[in-house]
Every structure is written in structure tokens, then in C-alpha cells.
Amino acid sequence: MEFDVVIVGAGPAGLSAACRLRQLALESDTELSVCVLEKAADIGGHILAGTIFETHALDELFPDWKNLNTPVTNTVKQDDTWLLKNATTARRVPSMLVPSSLDNKHNYIISLGDLCIWLAKQAEDLGVEIFTGFAANDLAFDNDGSVKGVITGDMGRDKHGNEKDNFMPGMELIGKYTLVTEGSRGHLGKQLIEKYQLDKDADPQHYGLGIKELWQIDPALHHPGLVMHSIGWPLAEHGATGGGFLYHVGKDQVYVGLITDLNYQNPYLSPFEEFQRLKLHPSFSRYLKGGKRLAYGARTITKGGYNCLPKMVFPGGLLLGCDAGTLNVAKLKGTHTAMKTGMIGAEAVFAAMALNRYKANEKLEQEQKQDLNKALSKDEKLNEEIDAGNSLEHFTLLYKASWVYQELYQSRNFAPITHRCNAMLGVTWFEQNILHKSLPFTLHDSKPDHSQLQKVTRSSAITYPKPDNLLTFDRLSSVFLANIQHDADQPCHLKLTDPSIPMCTNLPRFAEPAQRYCPAAVYEVVMIDKEVKFQINAENCIHCKACDIKDPSQNIVWTPPEGGSGPNYSGM
């Protein structure tokens, strides 16, 4: 199937790009075909984020969005930051001591999944074709080495790779340009960065693992628009960084979650169990007591910031949004920046296509004046000349002239500071509240997250309490609430480069941390036939990508399962 533009991923970046492309096409009365591929069974099914939403990009994309029945209605009314000192005590951080970038006045508490559903409807109304349940497994390359599109995965293979009765081969979707917007740690984005060395001038990327639940709480305890963030305990107790959140949305519901920076050192640490501990703190439990847990999910966050951004232009397309890492960690927000990069990408692509059409018409006119028949025989040469103008390097100029670039550049020191110690937030406060810009130097964090784990001989074991099934729960009951659809009789999408490494290397050195950093009980060390083995429960996977990032041997490679597989989040 051929399109002018192929977009991988129906998240905020991909859908904003699709909408902007079609807006430009309609404004100029230009024929332009755009398709969006989404691996989830439904739009929003794999979307999970906090989310405190800043509307800057939405204001530009749809200036009249407030009149278009958007799911952006719950304004932030109170914004508190707490320092949790231990398991029972906390101190509210005075607002004057909180970095101004974290001020949420004029922002909204939303479900990002619901926003993507709305954006998808706008895109379809504008003429975009959206295909859900199709995973873009591989990149398609042209003879010159540029990307010409993507190849979707086969459907209907058994776990041994054999064709089943319902087998359907993958198909190639070809575009003049391909925009890759898969979200954090996208598997195609990872390949593009490596193939074209897009990160050769950047620091290693850094990530956090966000775990989130949706709760129905006592109406007497509900305060619509209340936003709570926390730092310190429980992660600080183990030398780790990150923070908790609790957002009061509508219908007597709250989002509660914990983000654990994946540069932690103790291999015994479990982000899932740390999240369970967080909910027991009085600052959180006072709202959750007597409530009911409705949904659960997890997703990694690309949070290295400006210093870790790869080049976003590659031959044949663009790497945009969280796939590149455009989240503004100083604001704890990435939706508005992802949307804006998608919009800039659309404008760059549209300009390039307009230039190519102009070049083609000009060339034909010149040739036609000499000899029309002769010109028609030079199609191959003409195409070569047009292809030479297909570069999207002008995207970088548009990006650097935008507010999103300035926003990321001015917050470039935030991630390196917080990775060292949450207590160093004072430096960020000085930048944001006094200077109103970054310090005249750049801090760096050049050690990849996966290389940070200490060996077990240097680490203290951590004993976590059993769940009480009131506020705290186990992994399997949590995964049940992610509404996973996954046919177990399909090839395992979690690949081991060397199957011997988990037991021969990771177990003796790091007590095989996959069984703890995975928030979905995908990886287990079990006794089978009197032999200790490494077991992969692929049907539990909620596509968070933590394994692809944190495995100390970089031995686990996350690839997409059959299209439509995975979690089916609602309202997250």
C-alpha cells in the first residue's frame, strides 16, 4: 500500500502530525494521503501517562478546541509538593521553594488515552486513514539506504513460527516520508538511532518507569483538581530517585503512581513494590482508604532531556516525540512537546513535498519546450533529481526556531541534577526561579541506565511486605486490571540475544533483576524438573519496555507481538 506519508504510532506526536499534514493539504487544496499505524487494538489502548496537560500545542493545532468536545476539562485547582521523610512523616514544600517549571496553574488533569481518541477522530475527519491492530515490525529500505516505509508483522503464526489456519502475512506500507512516533523506547526508533548513528553527538538516553493506577475513592475524600507530587521516601531509602503523584480527576476518581528512575543501583529494588509502599504512606493512604482500584498499567518515560536528544532527521523520515525523547523533565510533561514536534515534522514534510512538486513541474516544463517525447524518456533521471530534494534537514531549522526547542534547552540541566540527588533540586530552583533560564554551562550524565546496577556482593537485599489486598496488591492481580489480550500461541516477542545469559551471568552477578524490575511478572526464575530456569511469561507483557532498557547485559530485545496484542487501557 502506498501513501504520501506513513506515520507509526497513534500517540500525541503521530496524531498531531497527521492532523497538521491534512490541515495544510486542505488549506492549499493539495492531494495528500496520510496513514497512521497503531499496534493497539483500539486507539488509546496502549497509551498511559500521568497526565498533567499543558495546552500550548493544542492551542496552535486546534485554536477552538474548547468548543470541540475535547476531554480536556478538569483544571488544576491546587498544586502541592511533598517531601516524604520516612514511612510515616512528610513535609509540604512551600510553593516559593518549588521550581517554577513545576507550577501547574492553567494546566489540566486528563486521560492521555482519551485525548488520543479525540485527536484520532479529528484526524479521520480531516481525511487521515488510521489502521489499528497492525504493528510496524520492520523498516523498509530503498536501494539508496533510505527508509521508504514499514512492514507490518505476520498474523496467525504459532509459537514455533509455523503458519496457523488464520495466517495473514505482513504487508509493506510505502510512503514518500515515514514519521516514527512510537513513544518511549520504540523498537523502530532504536534501530534508526543505531543504523544512522543519530545519537553520536548526544549523551546516553535516560529513562524512568512509571507505574499508575486508577482508583474510585470516597466522595468525601475527593477534591477535583488537586495535584500532589512527592519526592524522597520510599525510593530515597535505597538510594534511588524518582517521585510519586496523586491526581484528583472527575467522577470521584484519582490517579496514583510512582516514577522510578531506571538508573538505580541496587539489583534487589523492585519499582512495583516501591509503588505499593508509597500507597501506604499517610499522605497517599488518606485518600485511597475505602476506595477501589479500577485499572493498572506501566510505561517507561524517556527523560534524559535536551542533552540526550538524537538527531531527529534520518534519510526518508523523522523520529518524533517521546521516541526521540522530547519530554520536558523539568515540567514533568511531554505531551505538549510531543505534539509540537509532530506538528513541526508535518510542516517540514509538507514543505519538502511542495518543493519536490515545484522542481518536478519546472523540470518538465523546461524539457517540454525542447522535446516532450525526449523528456518522457528521462523519467529515471528526473526521479533521481527529485529524490535529491527529499531531505528533511530543514526540519532542524524549524525545530530550533520553535518554543519547544527553547523549552528543552533551558531545562537541559534538570535531569543530570536530579539523577545525582533529589536534594540538588535547589540548583534547578535557582535556574528556574531566579535566573529564569539555565546556568551558562551544561551538566551531563554519561552513564547508561543499564550499566548502573551494582553486583549482589555490594548490595543489600530488600524484603518487601506481603500485599494487604486493600491498598497494596501483587503483580498478577494488577496485570489482570490491564485488560491484556495476547494469544499465547504466537512467537515470543521478547527475544534473548543469548539464552544462557540470564542464568549464567545475570543470576550470579545481579540476582537476575528482570524478575524485579518488570512490573508485570513477565520474567521469573523458577524450578522446572529440579532445575532452576529463566521463564518468560510473554502473555503478561504490558509493553512498558523496562526490560529492553534496564537489563544489565542488554540481552533482552523487545519486539512487537501480533497486532492488537497487549494491554487495553481505558481512561488512563
Descriptive labels:
single chain, 572 residues, alpha+beta, eight-stranded mixed sheet, seven-stranded mixed sheet, 16 helices, 23% strand, globular
Descriptive report:
Helix 1 runs parallel beside helix 3, helix 7 packs antiparallel against helix 8 and helix 7 packs antiparallel against helix 9. Helix content is 30%, strand content 23%. The longest helix is centred in the middle third of the chain and has 42 residues. Strands 1, 2, 8, 9, 10, 13, 19 and 20 form an eight-stranded mixed β-sheet that branches. It has a seven-stranded mixed β-sheet with strand order 6-5-15-16-17-14-18. A three-stranded antiparallel β-sheet has the order 3-7-4, with no helix packed on it. It has 572 residues and is an alpha+beta fold. The chain is built from 16 helices and 24 strands.
